[in-house]
Amino acid sequence: MADEPLLRVEHLTTVFNLPGGTVPVVDDVSFEIRAGETLGLVGESGSGKSVTALSIMRLVQPPGRVAGGRLLFKGRDLSALDERAMREVRGADIALIFQEPMTALNPVFTIGDQIAETLLVHGRATRAEAAATAVELLDAVRIPDAASRVRDYPHQLSGGMRQRVLIAMALACRPALVIADEPTTALDVTIQAEILDLLRDMKARFHVSLLLITHDLGVIAETVDRVAVMYAGRIVETGPVRPVLRNPNHPYTRGLLASIPGGAPGQRLNAIEGSVPRLGALPSGCAFGPRCPDRFDACTTAPPPDYPTGVDHAAKCYLYNPHSAFRIPHSDASR
Amino acid sequence: MLKTGGAIVLLAAAAALFGPALTPFDPVSQELALRLAAPTLSHPFGLDELGRDILARVLAGARISFLVGVTVVSISASLGTVLGAAAGYFGGLLDDAIGRAIDILLAFPGLLLAIALVAVLGPSLVNVLFALTIIGWVGYARLVRGQVLRVRELEYVQAARAMGARAPHILWRHIIPAAMPAVVVQATLGMGGAIVGEAALSFLGLGVQPPSPSWGTMLNGGRAHLLDAPHLTIFPGLAIAALVLGLNFLGDGLRDATDPRRNT
What ipTM goes with this model? Predict the structure, then answer.
């Protein structure tokens, strides 16, 4: 990759200071998002996806705090910025779309007001200009009759429409990166497809990169260019979307994909054995070790580093350690 | 309840505003020959121990009661809202400092503290306002702090933060408006409290000084004549009871009207 990535997250660690001790919720996470690319961050609930997003925005609230790592955005380290400079980045350079369209809009202001607010907060427009831009943005996110809907209150809109409004708000200042935290989770399946389509369209039209956080592998398959799979606060596998989904390397990714329903009718669902470890009580070595069908001696020694497994594809798994006697070249993607 | 309370309060406000212009008698002019005279057609509430028309005094006293109620409530509600919002939003040391101040003030019986303050500062209307505000803001601060703790976790507040908004902007635009319904209810109920507080201080001789007609002062004047001229006590007493009852009705009505669970 000749180009400097838009955002490079290096060794990000976010901990929560809880009464029982300090718990790492995001544990030494590194990834990058290239200009114009969509990166999917996938993992189950509690794997640290949302906290990763909030850490990038530097919005982690106590008792959480970012304990280490660098956030290089356009070559600038966000973690070194003071609060004032960081405020100028939020909304203007990096925008965040929340999961719940029902509660992410303030019920007492019109949607036009709320779209305009972003522009006004950043001093990008006068009141009149901002109002006009709000109509344009509503139109761009395919809300019919934008000129009159701009005066609607959130309760007058359906969930899908509100999610469009949130996307319009995120795009208002023409950010370079949009982080969408489970943007379709709260919506009906048919509406989900429309919103994903809209996100793809907006990405091309507004030239933004997208960090899409989801637990839905279907969404990932349709929308993203590259995937990062999170488990227990760590990224266990990264790679281009097709190789990762077709030929998953990490046993956790394989388990996730195998547990998607859709075999023969009546067939039992394949679940991953065991349950997610409690953060703060992670097993030594690989966090997935105790549940892994392929575990062996090395798995309990130390958390595995990234081992390259293909072009732009890596997995944190000792199976791919070139110096390990147990190294298994994985060809059985059909498992 | 909302309508009954509103009607009583409106009536009392109209009486305070226009009443003194409608009665021919001056609240401080004395007609000593008619001291303690019982109610008649020309003096429907009778005359007091110095021969002053009690109706005129009750109407003039309403002005003082409203002045105290409105002033104390608006200052203590504003102060309490700002301090409570800051404590709830920023947390940390600021929250600890404001929280301890609230705890200390709440540890005193409110009126006792007001009496002590006025006793030190000297009896006057301004000092009564000051004392009642000092004990009044605490309730609003505690209420608003709780509301802010609830509202600041809402997603639209997080979204405003993610949008790059500054704390004052978020507080002013997103958080305080959401806390306002509760503050309005508290202010309505608090106004009754302030009016009773002023009456109590004036009754004890620590508030409005004679000959200014305050309901509390009038009650004090009637105390010596409870048996031979009860109208001295009955009418100002009724005025206090009616206005405070009206305010309580109004406050309860507003609370029900702003409660989303009651509005399905």
Answer: 0.81
